[in-house]
Amino acid sequence: MYNIGDLMIYSAHGICRVDDICEKSISGITRMYYVLHPLEDDHQLTISTPINNDKVVMLDLIQKDEALNILSSFKKPGIKWNDKPNVRLNLFKEIVNTGDRKEIAKVVNTLLRKKLEAEQHDKKLYEQDQKLLNAVRKILFKELSLSLGKSAEEIEEMVKKMIKESS
């Protein structure tokens, strides 16, 4: 159970702050709800979700030691690349949907390596790969930044440096 002011990862919305915990009645059913605010949202989006919602992923932020472990994983290759774009996208989305940050970092690692490789040849990453990379990288690097007391930009630079040094 989270408390008001706690941070969590909420589904595809990324890092959210618990602004309130209250009782709401929807369709005649009264339950306790978290009222969440995504940290990256400038439009003041508010999300209400039942406390016991098992249809979405709600995760605690990672601790510093796990964040350091995940960060160091960028020194190694990510996951095996599949040349079939739709198969690859489905595989990567399955991994992301598990919420396992170590595995998500492997997806980001692989996509970043492919992006850097493509840029060296004046090419671009396949569009659906780029969209997935942008969404997942933003959430992962923001979470790492909060856990490590650094900016998301510093995390990104550290990761790019590790990838370049290990290539």
List keywords for this structure.
alpha+beta, single chain, 167 residues
Summarize the helices and strands and which ones pair or pack.
Blueprint: E1 7-10, E2 14-26, E3 29-38, E4 47-50, E5 58-60, H1 64-72, H2 85-98, H3 101-120, H4 127-148, H5 152-166
Antiparallel strand pairs: 1-2, 1-5, 2-3, 3-4
Structure description:
The protein is of the alpha+beta class and 167 residues long. The mean pLDDT is 91. Helices cover 48% and strands 20% of the residues. It is globular, with a radius of gyration of 18 Å. The protein has a five-stranded antiparallel beta sheet.
Poorly predicted runs of 5 or more residues:
none
Strand order of the largest sheet: 4-3-2-1-5
Per the principal axes of the C-alpha atoms, what is the gross shape? globular
The average pLDDT is: 91
User: Proportion of β residues?
Assistant: 15-25%
- Number of contiguous helices: 5
- Main sheet attributes: strand count, strand direction, barrel closure: 5 strands, antiparallel
Secondary-structure element series: EEEEEHHHHH
Structural class computed from helices and strand pairing = alpha+beta
How far apart are the first and last residues' alpha carbons, in Å?
Answer: 42 Å
**What is the count of β-strands?**
5
What is the percent of helical residues?
40-55%
Radius of gyration: 18 Å
